[in-house]
Amino acid sequence: xxxxxxxxxxxxxSQTEALIADGHVLGWREWIGLPDLNVPQxxxxxxxxxxxxSLHALNPKQITLDGRDYVQFVxxxxxxxxxxxxxxxxxxxxxxxIRSSNGNAEERFIVxxxxxxxxxxxxxxxxxxxxxxxxxxxxxxRTAMKAGRFLVLPSKSYxxxxxxxx
Length: 166
Known about the structure:
Radius of gyration: 19 Å
Distance between the termini: 56 Å
Strand order of the largest sheet: 2-3-10-4-9-8-7-6-5
Order of helices and strands: HEEEEEEEEEEHE
Oligomer: single chain
Helix content: under 10%
Number of strands: 11
Structural class: mainly beta
């Protein structure tokens, strides 16, 4: 009987490199596309401590169209060229109490929209908030990361590259 050769397991480094190449590893900040909102790319902080993703939006207002509830809001400075405002409308999921990083709770509109991270397109829930004093106009929370089966490498940035336009 001949001795069987044991197959060597791939190293952690080679496994990580394969995941990065496939677009399943994110850095602490990434470019995110919002195709439903006509935003080709926006900078987002990847935050494993936040459950829900959040987007800087001004003047959110609930409206009804064809018997369905939507939220109308303004995204400042996200037109493709980085100038001007975009008037947006997205399906309302619910009003939800969200606790911010400073511990304060506030009721926010939660909308449903697609995001594009690299070549991955996902349907996610996003809370609308005034993030004007934050460093990033969008925060990518862990529920969205779980949906895309992403891992986070906090020492890196922009591993997914620019969002692919479809």
